[in-house]
Write a structure and sequence with these properties.
11 strands; two-stranded antiparallel sheet
């Protein structure tokens, strides 16, 4: 079951997770460490608060697909934000079904005494990443190059931040989000390759 947590001031929480925080939340300045234990979260909305920093432990929420941090007071982002990577398994095999054979059935040879099997479709690993990152109307001047690892990012909100002209120039181009991610990835040190290979294997 997908979990969604919405933390906005003066609004009732509408959440499908078994966590009760209260019906009304004051403006948030700091995030509780307990939040990062909710590893089944797929969407986290923290817009319109007074957050000044995002803890590096954000990378523990490996199932996040949407993260809304717009309209806060963030001055920087942790490099760990680029580590929101999760290795999942194709739905055809996630329920521990037996191998799916392409055709035929196992064959036993009375002559050789060998039991042979037809080819089967193995489980397929899927590398899941953040798809929507909303950072508009903060105080960001720079972005960590590690964001370039989020190659599945579809929506990136950067408007209303005092970012460099270079970043905003790339971002404002057609297909600017992907171009900006490629730009940051090109500048990222090669150490991330070791991490990515370790995640895959």
């Amino acid at each position: 079951m997908k979990d969604i947590l919405c933390l906005e001031p003066q609004k009732r929480i509408n959440s499908r997770i078994m966590v009760r925080i209260g019906e009304c939340i004051r403006t948030i300045r700091n995030l509780s460490p307990n939040l990062f234990h909710l590893q089944n979260l797929t969407a986290l909305y923290l817009k319109n608060n007074h957050l000044q920093r995002l803890p590096p432990t954000i990378c523990q929420l490996v199932n996040l697909r949407t993260l809304d941090l717009s309209q806060n007071k963030l001055r920087s982002l942790p490099a760990e934000l680029g580590d929101l990577i999760h290795l999942s398994v194709n739905p055809i095999s996630q329920h521990a079904r037996p191998p799916r054979y392409i055709s035929g059935s196992p064959h036993y040879s009375l002559t050789t005494g060998i039991l042979s099997f037809p080819p089967f479709i193995p489980p397929i690993a899927i590398l899941l990443k953040l798809q929507e990152l909303l950072l508009s109307n903060n105080q960001l001047r720079i972005l960590p190059y590690e964001l370039g690892k989020l190659f599945n990012l579809i929506v990136l909100g950067l408007q209303g931040n005092p970012l460099t002209k270079e970043i905003m120039s790339i971002y404002s181009e057609p297909n600017g989000t992907q171009k900006l991610l490629s730009h940051m990835l090109d500048h990222l040190q090669g150490k991330w390759l070791v991490y990515l290979i370790a995640e895959i294997w």
